[in-house]
């Protein structure tokens, strides 16, 4: 697999021949595993989550939909979603608002199915009954329904997304947003990996990496394409308020796709969930 490097200030990546950097084979730690049970709601650390070949179990298992418009609600258009926290235990979903109100119940299928638009692709969803839709509708100020999605259907990219501590430190220094490491949830990444070299993860494309999650079996994951970022990055991960200059900083300093969206982090897919643990937290090897 050829290595990919940013092509100057252009909006593309260029391929270079030869072996990847030896630094890409070093070991690194896994300080965070996180996701949201309901798409768009707060991205929370879930260190005890089970992980299978599709990714974390329960990751974006549900979403809110605008039934009339047949649209899946997205965070960038509905930032108040971020202030909603969730837990899912034994199929019982709890949604809690910042004012303390909450609802708990099993999101039972209503028998109604709805095909909705999600980033210009159709997704078949099952509308649910229960108290969750009413609370969310009141909080968001418009009628919405909680729906159950098939695994991966309301995930924009791959089953896993990865950002690294070194890349976040570089962005923190460049932007002056020095609390960024404490706000890693801005990136809504499944895994945060501990590295020393900024953007080294981009040289791992096409490689299999063994990740030792402390509360799960070792995972063999395959690194994919870089992740293009949007305005969600500038939303506070707790309040949902806009205000940082992170996206602007990335646009000025990072490679971009054809739409002008800057890259930060990488997609990945789980290849094996029973990989033999390494002595460190993760290693990378050429395929």
TrEMBL record:
Protein name as catalogued: MOSC domain protein beta barrel domain protein
Record region (Disordered): 1-25
Domain MOSC: 133-287
One Pfam family per UniProt: MOSC_N
GO molecular function, one term: catalytic activity
């Amino acid at each position: 697999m050829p290595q990919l490097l940013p092509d100057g200030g252009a909006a593309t990546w260029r391929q270079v021949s030869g072996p990847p950097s030896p630094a890409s084979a070093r070991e690194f730690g896994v300080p965070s595993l996180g996701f949201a049970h309901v798409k768009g709601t707060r991205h929370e650390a879930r260190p005890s989550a089970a992980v299978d070949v599709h990714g974390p179990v329960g990751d974006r298992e549900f979403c809110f939909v605008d039934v009339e418009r047949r649209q899946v609600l997205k965070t960038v258009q509905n930032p108040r979603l971020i202030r909603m926290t969730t837990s899912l235990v034994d199929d019982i979903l709890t949604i809690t608002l910042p004012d303390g109100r909450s609802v708990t119940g099993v999101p039972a299928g209503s028998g109604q199915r709805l095909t909705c638009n999600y980033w210009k692709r159709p997704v078949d969803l099952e509308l649910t009954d229960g108290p969750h839709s009413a609370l969310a509708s009141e909080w968001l100020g418009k009628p919405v329904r909680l729906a159950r999605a098939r695994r991966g259907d309301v995930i924009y990219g791959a089953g896993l997304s990865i950002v690294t501590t070194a890349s976040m430190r570089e962005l923190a220094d460049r932007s002056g947003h020095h609390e960024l490491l404490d706000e890693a949830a801005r990136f809504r990444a499944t895994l945060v990996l501990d590295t020393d070299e900024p953007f080294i993860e981009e040289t791992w494309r096409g490689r299999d990496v063994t990740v030792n999650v402390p509360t799960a079996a070792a995972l063999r994951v395959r690194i994919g394409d870089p992740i293009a970022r949007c305005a969600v990055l500038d939303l506070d991960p707790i309040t949902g308020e806009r205000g940082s200059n992170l996206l602007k900083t990335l646009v000025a300093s990072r490679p971009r796709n054809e739409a002008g969206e800057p890259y930060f982090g990488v997609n990945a897919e789980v290849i094996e969930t029973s990989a033999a643990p390494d002595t460190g937290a993760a290693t990378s090897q050429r395929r």
